[in-house]
Each structure stands twice: as structure tokens, then as C-alpha cells.
């Protein structure tokens, strides 16, 4: 279900298993209430943010210096973007299916 703010609350609190399960059940219920499309859009957004972070960093680390290299780097970055978005969509669908099973 991803790392969210409630996850960090659980990490630093000493809770019994029953209390932790109650919180997790409430979070699953809230997620189901908000709906499948919002859940999948959120996963796609996380993948987009992940794409925005490593791609410019990798371009900077592998700096070749020429103008044509910059154009090819941008082309490669844009070619990889749909792969990341598709991955986010598929990941969201699979996680949603797991939530529905629970």
C-alpha cells in the first residue's frame, strides 16, 4: 500500500498487534472508500515523481558535454517516461487487487 504518514506513526509507537491491525484495517477501509481510480492515480504519481528524481540525476552523472548528447539524453528520458507511467498503473492495479482480497 506504499509508505504513508500513518506508516511513520506506527513505526515510532509501541502498539499491540490488535491496535496495529485496527489502524491498518481502518486505513484499508478509507482507501476503498476513496476508490480505485484515485488509488491508481496516486501510484502513477509516485512513479512520475520517482522518474523525475533519477533521470536528471543520471543525466548529470553521465554528462558527456556535447549538445547532441543533451538532445539524446532528453529523448531517452522521454522514451522511458511511458514505461514508468505504465509501471505505476500496473502496480496500482495489482495493489488494488490485493486490497480487494483482504
Give a written overview of the molecule.
- The protein is mostly helical.
- The chain folds into two domains: about 35 residues, no CATH class; about 70 residues.
- About 85% of the residues lie in helices and about 0% in strands.
- Helix 3 runs antiparallel to helix 5.
- The chain is elongated.
- The model has no long low-confidence stretch (mean pLDDT about 80).
Give me the secondary-structure topology.
Blueprint: H1 5-12, H2 17-34, H3 36-52, H4 54-61, H5 67-101
Helix pairs in contact: 3-5
Q: Features of this protein?
A:
102 residues, mainly alpha
Rg, nearest Å = 19 Å
Counting structural domains, the number is: 2
> Helical percent range?
over 70%
Low-confidence parts, pLDDT < 50 over ≥5 residues?
Answer: none
N-to-C SSE string, H for helix and E for strand: HHHHH
* Spatial separation of the terminal alpha carbons: 12 Å
Shape call = elongated
Number of DSSP strand runs = 0
Overall pLDDT score: 81
Structural class: mainly alpha
- Count of DSSP H/I helices: 5
Q: Report the major sheet.
A: none
**What share of residues are in beta strands?**
under 5%
Amino acid at each position: 500500500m506504499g509508505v504513508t504518514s500513518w506508516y511513520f506513526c506506527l513505526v515510532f509507537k509501541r502498539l499491540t498487534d490488535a491496535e496495529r491491525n485496527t489502524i491498518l484495517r481502518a486505513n484499508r477501509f478509507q482507501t476503498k472508500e476513496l476508490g480505485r481510480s484515485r488509488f491508481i492515480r496516486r501510484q502513477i504519481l509516485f512513479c512520475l515523481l520517482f522518474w523525475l528524481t533519477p533521470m536528471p540525476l543520471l543525466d548529470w552523472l553521465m554528462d558527456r558535454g556535447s549538445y547532441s548528447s543533451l538532445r539524446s539524453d532528453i529523448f531517452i528520458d522521454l522514451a522511458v517516461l511511458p514505461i514508468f507511467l505504465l509501471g505505476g498503473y500496473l502496480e496500482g492495479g495489482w495493489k488494488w487487487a490485493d486490497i480487494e482480497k483482504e
